[in-house]
């Protein structure tokens, strides 16, 4: 039961990412898609931040060398998540018309959001690397999904509109695998 609770932040994060991917596919399919149902994702998003932050804090306390990467990630994850949420909410509230998804590529506001998201994703990437080791398969998948999401937001959406939802589904798969590995106890540190 403790392992399931410990990994639940990654499973919740995976669910949020799937929801975002589905929302993006709806925007591609029709310009009059309702985004109201995505409000369900908000508490799940914040719940995943809290649970993942607690995991990294536990890893810091249990690591022999008291690695600061875990502590910094644990402390920064929630504030950075809140910043992303606020920035995105402000940006979304300014949009009076839902454009084609390709029109959002290269928008400076979204690039800033992607940069903040990338910072906390890379922090978690370092933690996952330290927790599982370099032979861990999702490290490569996590790097690929971070790169694809950033690439999409900067300019690739104009070239291939399905790249961003595809990257979201890849990220969702990766975070679910990390959660599953935590349930199975594959980490190098005994998290208690």
Question: Which features would summarize this protein structure in a list?
Answer:
single chain; 192 residues; mainly alpha; elongated
- Summed up, the helix count is 6
Structural class: mainly alpha
**Which value, in Å, is the CA radius of gyration?**
17 Å
Q: Strand content of the residues, in percent?
A: under 5%
Low-confidence stretches: none
Q: End-to-end distance, in Å?
A: 12 Å
Q: How many E strands? A: 0
> What share of residues is helical?
over 70%
Largest sheet: none
Order of helices and strands: HHHHHH
Shape, per Cα inertia axes: elongated
User: Please, what is the average pLDDT?
Assistant: 89
Describe the structure.
Helix 2 (41-62) packs antiparallel against helix 3 (68-94), helix 3 packs antiparallel against helix 4 (108-132) and helix 5 (138-154) runs antiparallel to helix 6 (163-183). 73% of the residues lie in helices and 0% in strands. The protein has 192 residues and is mainly α. It has helices spanning 2-29, 41-62, 68-94, 108-132, 138-154, 163-183. The chain contains 6 helices and no strands.
Offer a quick outline of the entry.
This protein has 192 residues and is mainly alpha-helical. Helices cover 73% and strands 0% of the residues.
SSE topology:
Layout: H1 2-29, H2 41-62, H3 68-94, H4 108-132, H5 138-154, H6 163-183
